[in-house]
């Protein structure tokens, strides 16, 4: 079985601020980040689609302990976002002081971009990840 959208291709698009997902031709659901099968019905008839990156903040967690070798990044906030197309996506929330996060931000609109993070002991070099910004 082949991946319709291999992680490498998804990551390459993210570096250009393009968020790709997979649309299921059986049930219509969108899967993102990409998986081998539809996350709703496990269907394999998938097509690559570009997502808007628009969504809303479902939850967040602010971290004060850095991953190994990345002390310069703390504190930072990881957000769980529900994309307008349906899937839930994790990424850092940027352009806001992590110390100023409060529960009133839940439900706020966000937009997605890609940002390249440095590699660490456990990864294969720099990698792009989704990041979110609050929409004013
Ligand atoms: Zn499906």
Model description:
The chain is mainly β. It folds into 2 domains: 7-51, no CATH class; 54-134, Beta Barrel (OB fold (Dihydrolipoamide Acetyltransferase, E2P)). It is built from 1 helix and 8 strands; from the N terminus they run αββββββββ. A 5-stranded mixed β-barrel has the order 4-5-6-8-7. A 3-stranded antiparallel beta sheet has the order 2-1-3, covered by helices on one side. Strand 5 (76-83) and strand 6 (88-93) form a beta hairpin. The longest helix has 9 residues, at 7-15. It starts with 6 loop residues before the first helix and ends with a strand. The structure holds zinc ion.
Provide a short characterization of the protein structure.
The protein has 136 residues and is mainly β.
Output the keywords:
three-stranded antiparallel beta sheet, 8 strands, OB fold (Dihydrolipoamide Acetyltransferase, E2P), 2 domains, 7% helix, binds zinc ion, 136 residues, mainly beta, 1 helix, five-stranded mixed β-barrel
Give the helix proportion (percent range): under 10%
What is the CATH third-level topology name of the largest domain? Answer: OB fold (Dihydrolipoamide Acetyltransferase, E2P)
Q: How large is the share of residues in beta strands?
A: 35-45%
Supply the CATH architecture of the largest domain.
Beta Barrel
Number of helices: 1
Helix-strand category:
mainly beta
**Could you tell me the number of beta strands?**
8
Average residue-wise pLDDT: 94
Q: Which ranges are low-confidence, i.e. pLDDT below 50, for 5 or more consecutive residues?
A: none
Q: Widest sheet: strand order?
A: 4-5-6-8-7
Order of helical and strand elements: HEEEEEEEE
Give the cofactors and ligands.
Answer: zinc ion
Radius of gyration: 16 Å
CATH class of the largest domain: Mainly Beta
Major beta sheet summary: 5 strands, mixed, barrel
Shape: globular
Span between termini: 43 Å
Number of domains: 2
């Amino acid at each position: 079985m082949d991946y319709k959208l291999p992680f490498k291709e998804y990551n390459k698009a993210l570096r250009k601020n393009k968020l790709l997902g997979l649309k299921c031709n059986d049930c219509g659901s969108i899967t993102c980040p990409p998986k081998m099968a539809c996350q709703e019905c496990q269907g394999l008839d998938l097509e690559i689609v570009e997502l808007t990156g628009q969504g809303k903040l479902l939850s967040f967690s602010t971290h004060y302990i850095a991953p190994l070798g990345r002390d310069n990044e703390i504190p930072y906030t990881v957000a769980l976002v529900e994309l307008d197309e349906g899937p839930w996506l994790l990424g850092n929330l940027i352009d806001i002081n992590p110390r100023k996060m409060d529960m009133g931000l839940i439900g706020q609109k966000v937009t997605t971009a890609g940002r390249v993070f440095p590699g660490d002991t456990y990864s294969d070099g720099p990698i792009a990840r989704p990041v979110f910004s609050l929409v004013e």
